[in-house]
Amino acid sequence: MKNCPTCLRPFTDVRDYPVTTVTKIEFPDHGIVLDTCTWASGGYRLDAEALQIGETAWNEISGNTALQEYLSGLKGISEQVPQKLKPEDLLPHWPKDSYYQHAYPIPGNFESTDSAKRYGWNKYYICESTDEGISKVALWTKGPNMGSAGGPSIQQVGVVATIHFQGNIA
After folding, report:
1. What are phi and psi of 53, to 5 degrees?
2. How does 63-97 read in b/e, with b if 16+ C-beta sit within 10 Å?
3. pLDDT tens-place string over residues 34-52
4. I want to staple 34 with a disulfide (CB 3.0 to 4.6 A). Which of 47, 78, 119, 158 is the partner?
5. Count of domains forming the chain
6. Rounded-to-integer distance, Cα 165 and Cα 5, Å
7. 64-98 pLDDT per residue, tens
8. How far is the C-alpha of 67 from the C-alpha of 131, rounded, in Å?
9. Chain center to CA of 110
10. CA–CA distance, 53 with 60 (Å, rounded to integer)
11. Is residue 88, in this structure, part of any structural domain at all?
């Protein structure tokens, strides 16, 4: 079903459905599929430096206890597919950000990491983006401040899991 049967609003996100049937969850071989573009490399461009920056960030954060517990929970779900779940069962169980409504700040102190010192990446988030039955769970961090054009932003570092699902009304 693509639209709400009551208001006809299109469903665009895994969170729009009251229940989802998870059909598959995929995890990258190396823990993350890095985004090849980043502002930290001197502009939003595709280059090897962007990959290195992303890899450094992942190495710094991948051992975080809260992140590992969340990914272990997804791996547990992936071993029992297909199964019906509420969308919140696929999201982190820590509080979401007050400013970025679809972002969940990963608990922990990242002030002393190399990425924090070099790029100001002292906070990391888990975000999901959905497109036609596929939800990508990604690691995000601080992006450029767009000032009057939009204020602070966050940028994707890379995808840590891909959830395939079918939305259900009941």
Report:
1. -60, -45
2. ebebbeebbeebeebbeeeeeebebeebbbeeebe
3. 765 555 545 555 567 777 7
4. 158
5. 1
6. 19
7. 999 999 999 999 999 999 999 988 898 899 998 88
8. 23
9. 18
10. 11
11. yes
